[in-house]
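hi support,

uploading two proteins for the ticket. first:
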Amino acid sequence: MKNIVLILSLLSGYLIGSFPTGYVLTKFTSNKDIRTTGSGSTGATNVLRSSGNKKLALLTLLIDVTKGFLVSKLFINTGYLPIAVIACLIGHVYPIWLKGHGGKGVATSAGALLGICPFLTLISASIWGMMLKITKISSVASLSFIGSFFALTLLTNASSSLITLSALILGFLLFTHRSNLLRLIKNQEKAFNSK
């Protein structure tokens, strides 16, 4: 039985996460491949940068958040929650439908954490908004979100499982933002209109 739940958590997490929201929406509305424009990511930031369509970017954001939220709620009462959430993030970043070319996992991570611990997630989201307004750099704001969430789990004596999961997500997002980090070091990261 445990093996079945493990397999379900892996498959369900990956398949839900792998829905290529930004790609599908931009393909449907403009018949363009979002992967060929801007940063090449299928996330909401690149949808906005590439299309200039705020409503489309917002819809992309909401659906990507919902993917993570759904997975966390499906497996929150099982011992396989971390596995399901990480599988969801892997699906989002490396969707089989797009030959492994997806987003960077921030919105989906936020959705998963929102389903597990809404209070800390909302505080971290406010830090994300503040950092975006101050720096106008999306990657800085994104990493500030997960970094602050992880710090808050330590400061509030959260459960060891939540601390572990947030550490895993932090590590994963640092990996998906490795090119952004290199550009930040070289002072080459592009600013983003926070409005």
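and the second one:
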Amino acid sequence: MIKTDILIIGAGPTGLFTVFEAGLLKLKTHLIDALPQVGGQCSEIYPKKPIYDIPAYPEILAGELSDKLMEQIKPFEPGFTLGERAETLEKQEDGSFVVTTNKGTQHQAPIVVVAGGLGSFEPRKPKIENIVDFEDKGVAYIIKDPEVYRDKKVVIAGGGDSALDWAIFLTDVASEVSLVHRRNEFRGALDSVEKASELAKLGKIKLYTKAEVAELHGKDNLDAVVIKSTDVDVEDVYLEVDNFIPLFGLSPKLGPIGDWGFEIEKNAIKVNNAKDYQTNIPGVFAIGDVNTYPGKLKLILSGFHEAAVMCQFAYQIINPNKRFVMKYTTVGGVEGFDGSKKEAKKEVVKSIL
């Protein structure tokens, strides 16, 4: 039985930052994740995707963000159970919880935090009759390594941030980039829409709006696509390509966590955002993309904020007779959080106990 103060389900960015916030309060943490490595979607789905809304980083790759978070939490020595899925949650007589994984590993803690992102994923595939025939033969639903598309002709379909960001990014990698969207208006960030439009004017992106990829052609591998316009007066476009990447998002599934008794709304866990991000099960919190509440923004930085607030209330549950008020953190050449002298980066916590 693995015992800890806070058991975190999900080792993505929000889960990892929770370790830091808990560490400031001298609370021990352990993380469970079904993936064999930390980082969640950032490591598994798009490690090379640039992220632009992390404070102090004008741009950082998703995989690099995971590495930086691991570096940040290293002094707190969290535990990890990776490659195992959290299956069951059982409340004990003493008020603590036992979480058992699909491989039978048991974990016990007074606080459980669900930070599992959007759960497990399946790509949303366009309705093209033979698309399955070209999967891994020119068709992909996520981009892990953009170097795969070096000097290739690439067609991206989609109208959200992912499609826009990758189309922009690949202009410096691929020999030709085409972006296809079934509407005139994009759903992505205004800055990304403007960048893509400017690149289209410069001839670096072939932009097809009010259109969709309707046919795929090739023998052993994808050779070409047919782009059909929704405007009946516009002729079809036959385009020779090496790769087709439909980025229509991923369909999330909560998995076993959805059977733990939470209040669920649109495949997300309802929490009390007015106070502490606690679920309807006292002692169990949900933070990051997995939760929902009025005004929720599914951003990594929102998950970071929720982690900080949640840890304050978790401390009060674990230590009901103690008062801890965090004032500020800083960096200096003094003792580390654990009281040991460190040669490298030092941290100071100013608090009132």
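thanks. also noticed: The mean pLDDT is 88.
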